[in-house]
Specification:
Blueprint (H helix, E strand, L loop, with lengths): L18 H17 L2 H16 L7 E4 L5 H12 L6 E4 L3 H11 L1
Parallel strand pairs: 1-2
Helix pairs in contact: 2-3
Length: 106
């Protein structure tokens, strides 16, 4: 199925991608994650990992290519509601994207 790896830069990370298109695309991806299971799958995983497997050992999460960081933010909310911690590190590939999203969220 995955016989090769894409090596080209993602369209949203390219300098000639309009900011309006990038923001609309990230907003759309957030909606898809909320409505069609991305967030739900992460919550289920967290519940399973923290209750069955870790026995008090902190769960650490790495999200590579985080997009708008909606998943790491949800992890943080999940941990806050349970009065626990789930340290996560998010990595966006593009500094331009990171600046754009930070500006849009502030």
């Amino acid at each position: 199925m995955l016989d090769s790896r894409a090596t080209s830069e993602e369209f949203l990370d390219q300098p000639d991608c309009s900011e309006a298109l990038a923001l609309a695309s990230y907003k759309f991806m957030e909606m898809v994650n909320r409505r069609f299971g991305g967030i739900r799958v992460v919550r289920k995983f967290l519940e399973t990992e923290t209750t069955q497997h870790h026995n008090g050992i902190p769960l650490r999460i790495l999200d590579i290519g985080s997009g708008s960081c909606d998943i790491p933010l949800e992890i943080s909310r999940w941990a806050g509601h349970r009065r626990t911690t789930a340290p996560s590190t998010s990595r966006a590939w593009s500094r331009r994207t990171t600046r754009l999203l930070l500006r849009a969220k502030n």
